[in-house]
Specification:
alpha+beta, Beta-galactosidase, Chain A, domain 5, 2 domains, nine-stranded antiparallel beta sheet, eight-stranded antiparallel beta sheet, 30% helix, 19% strand, elongated
């Protein structure tokens, strides 16, 4: 940011802090322990809503009751590991916010202000925090109010940076005015977003100057280690790095049992810029910043409600409204239409906390992006889906395909080929044109043609399935390919695409239907490696699941043959497979509650999850609900929607998966979500909105369309 929007302050680059302010320092333990990301199970996320500007390119997350990863200047670039407070009595008592307090994290209302309430487990103090992003600057504002039940306590802020997606090679500098961090950047770092190679400075500035400060190396000389052993700051070094560093500042609290202070966490291209952003923001009362933040999100919901004023679900369902907000919170503010899969870095099944690494789920997957666009479209967002199409076209490869996933600037991350991801952009183009939201031009149609040609030349088998684990002939992938080719013919008037689609459609059962197997006769397999289900083939189950015959493994991909209009809901082969899929004996489905809703693992013998036991995926409960809509069973569809939303955590965020299903005899109880599970997952929130609208309209909203 060169100009501080809203404040009218021009910041001069000549104020840049030179590298000597972040020189090597003396605290012991360099370079510190390896960095570990905070749990992927976020309790809340936040960013200012900006329809067309980028004054506040900052995104924040919370987990375990504290502020965790903060992103700047895009939602794929982490700059902060976590931020919490520490409390001592100066001589024998120590507590930390994350480990020694019980807390609750929720949104205040639809304005999306995050509220944390908590108390120390022994009752020595309680607190409340409100967290928002400053709509006028790249600043996170944190207002904290303490009630001290024990006199003589001392308060410290512990700040753990993770500049440019890593805790390594960070540099720290501390003063009474604030805690500052940056990193030595290697230009043109290979395989990463180009924005990550620019210099970033973080500044944590208090509303009241710190009494004392320190810097140190994580696990050895940082403030947590020092205070937990000595109960006051004894490591007085004001600089540290390069390494995995943390900074500490003591907050003066006085003698009043009720005490309030604020922090501004800001970012810039140099220390002076970041510090000025923070200091200028603190000059604006917190309530004013909060009002602007909430006004933006209320305005977004009002816009959506106006656009689909004839739909009851959006005005009546606070859950659907929150899902729309959560999806938009994952969008970049410069590359409009770039929506990452999740602001988290999942670590299941290996551990609760991922080791230092840059990718995580804060990357763009074309599949997740398509679902996000359709979910927002269903919610009444008429702009973001068009932006998504243009963003996809911008990042289409020369051969007509898309990378498996990529940084927001389009730089590929993983290099696999997933044919459904080549199909979805065509389906999105058809939806936009058929609904009158956008008229495709020549460049759009050229993109469709190149993608369709790639599908024909490389399909119908795929190198990887939608779970990125196995390749071959899959009902789910083939359904997307066939639907996309038919839509491509309607859009371009080139009948050759539909000709291939019709041929493939007639071969689906030859490629994927098991004539005889463990589950009986004539059911759809998860995958046939070579399209020969009559010849038993062993497949390797990912995540240590072992080896099994391909005919033994089922998943819900066959449901998308119905959703994509390839097979009818009453097709005997679909019905036969559904009966197996819904039977708990298959190892996939589980009864979820008294409404007869079901929840599902990804496939039989799935072991991706806590304890290497496959979890239950809310988005799959939604897929089952969409089938029920097409089958005319609206009671079952509503039961499935209930299960989707029952899988959410307290703040309404939907996870990738849950450890357990809601108890059938305790339907008011929510599922358990492991700390290593991605939460929220954009795709799940999209499925929630889509099922709401599909139930109201009595037809699946995202079934392929191309004509009026």
């Amino acid at each position: 940011m060169k100009v501080l929007a809203g404040f009218g302050l021009i910041l001069s680059a000549t104020l840049a802090l030179t590298s000597q302010h972040f020189a090597h320092a003396e605290p012991g333990g360099a370079p510190g322990l390896p960095h570990r990301w905070a749990p992927a199970m976020k309790q809340a996320i936040g960013t200012a809503y900006e329809a067309s500007t980028a004054s506040s390119p900052v995104w924040f997350t919370l987990a375990q009751g504290i502020l965790t990863e903060v992103f700047y200047p895009s939602p794929d670039q982490v700059q902060v590991g976590d931020l919490q407070f520490l409390v001592t009595d100066g001589h024998g008592f120590f507590s930390d916010q994350k480990g020694d307090c019980t807390s609750q994290v929720n949104y205040l209302d639809e304005g999306m202000t995050v509220v944390v309430t908590g108390q120390e487990k022994m009752g020595r103090y309680s607190y409340e925090q409100e967290i928002v992003a400053d709509s006028a600057a790249p600043v996170v504002r944190i207002k904290t109010t303490f009630h001290w039940n024990q006199p003589g306590l001392r308060l410290f802020t512990l700040f753990k940076p993770a500049i440019n997606n890593t805790g390594a090679q960070n540099l720290a500098s501390a003063s009474e005015d604030g805690l500052f961090a940056t990193k030595n950047v290697s230009p043109n770092r290979s395989g990463s977003n180009v924005r990550s190679s620019s210099q970033v400075y973080a500044a944590l500035v208090p509303s009241i100057p710190f009494v004392s400060v320190s810097t140190g190396y994580v696990g050895y000389s940082d403030g947590f280690q020092d205070l937990s052993k000595n109960f006051h700051i004894t490591v007085t070094d004001r600089q540290a790095g390069p390494g995995n560093i943390a900074l500490t500042g003591e907050v003066p609290i006085g003698n009043n049992p009720d005490f309030t202070f604020e922090l501004a966490l800001a970012f810039g291209e140099n220390r002076s810029e970041a510090q000025t952003y923070a200091q200028t923001s603190l000059q604006v009362p917190f309530e004013s910043v909060k009002a602007d933040y909430e006004g933006g999100w209320h305005g977004y919901l009002n816009e959506l409600e106006t656009n689909i004023s004839d739909k009851r679900f959006f005005s009546e369902s606070t859950f659907a409204r929150r899902s729309a907000q959560i999806i938009r919170m994952h969008e970049d503010k410069v590359e409009h239409g770039a929506i990452v899969a999740s602001l988290s870095n999942p670590a299941v099944p290996e551990s609760d906390n991922a080791m230092d690494g840059s990718g995580g789920y804060h990357l763009v997957w074309p599949r997740d992006l398509y679902h996000a666009a359709m979910g927002l479209m269903a919610a009444g967002d008429i702009h973001a889906p068009v932006d998504v199409l243009h963003y996809l076209e911008k990042n289409q490869k020369s051969d007509g395909s898309w990378s498996q996933n990529f940084w927001i600037d389009g730089t590929p991350y993983w290099r696999g080929l997933q044919m459904d991801e080549v199909s979805f952009p065509i389906l999105l183009a058809g939806q936009l044109q058929s609904r009158g939201l956008y008229r495709l031009d020549g460049s759009d149609l050229d993109s469709v043609k190149r993608a369709a040609s790639f599908i024909i030349s490389h399909g119908p088998s795929t190198q990887e399935d939608r779970w990125e684990e196995i390749g071959g002939y899959l009902p789910d992938t083939i359904a997307a390919e066939v639907a996309a080719l038919k839509v491509a013919t309607t859009l371009t008037q080139d009948s050759s695409y539909a000709s291939v689609a019709n041929q493939w459609q007639s071969f689906i059962e030859r490629w994927t239907l098991a004539p005889q197997g463990k589950w009986g006769k004539n059911y759809y397999m998860r995958v046939s490696p070579h399209g020969t289900p009559e010849n038993p083939e062993p497949i390797q189950i990912a995540n240590g699941g072992g080896q099994a015959d391909a005919t033994d493994i089922l998943d819900g991909g066959f449901l998308n043959l119905v959703r994509m209009g390839i097979r009818s809901a009453q097709d005997p082969r679909i019905v036969t497979t559904l009966q197996i899929y819904d039977n708990p004996d298959s190892g996939i489905a589980a009864a979820a509650d008294r409404t007869n809703g079901l929840t599902y693992r990804r496939y039989s013998l799935d072991s991706y999850g806590e304890g290497r036991v496959g979890g239950y995926w809310p988005l799959l409960a939604g897929e089952r609900g969409h089938y029920s809509v097409l089958a005319g069973d609206m009671d079952q569809a509503r039961a499935q929607l209930y299960i989707v939303e029952k899988s959410a955590i307290e703040s309404g965020l939907l996870p990738e998966q849950t450890i357990s299903a809601p108890s059938p005899d305790q339907s008011d109880g929510q599922s358990e979500v492991g700390l290593g599970v991605a939460c929220p997952l954009v795709w799940a929130h999209a499925e929630d909105i889509l099922l709401h609208r599909s139930i109201e309209e009595g037809n699946v909203f995202d079934s392929p369309r191309a004509g009026p």
